[in-house]
Amino acid sequence: MEITRWMKIEEIVRRYPETIPVFDRYGVACLDCCAAEFDDVEHGAKVHGIDADQLVQDLNACLVGRA
């Protein structure tokens, strides 16, 4: 499965815990807050002033080779 900009942050972290360092690197520290349950990647990127496309690309890159 590929991560998309419309996926909820909480869902991504739950399914793919290896993405946590990527979120941390971008300063998306809302992983423990209730917003992660409702916010998708695109909204989280916008709130944090980062490029959603680049974030999605980096999130997917960390899944390469995952069984």
Keywords summarizing the entry:
single chain; mainly alpha; 67 residues
Kindly summarize this structure in a few lines.
By secondary structure, this protein is an all-alpha fold.
Blueprint of the fold:
Blueprint lengths: L8 H7 L4 H6 L9 H4 L2 H8 L3 H10 L6
What does this structure look like?
With 67 residues, the chain is mainly alpha-helical. The chain is built from five helices and no strands. It has helices spanning 9-15, 20-25, 35-38, 41-48, 52-61. The chain is globular and about 30 Å long.
Give the structural class.
mainly alpha
Give the tally of β-strands.
Answer: 0
Number of helical regions: 5
Write down the Rg: 11 Å
Oligomer: single chain
- Percent helix among the residues? 40-55%
Distance between the termini: 11 Å
Largest sheet: none
Mean pLDDT comes to 87
Shape annotation: globular
Proportion of β residues?
Answer: under 5%
Element string (H = helix, E = strand): HHHHH
The low-confidence parts are none
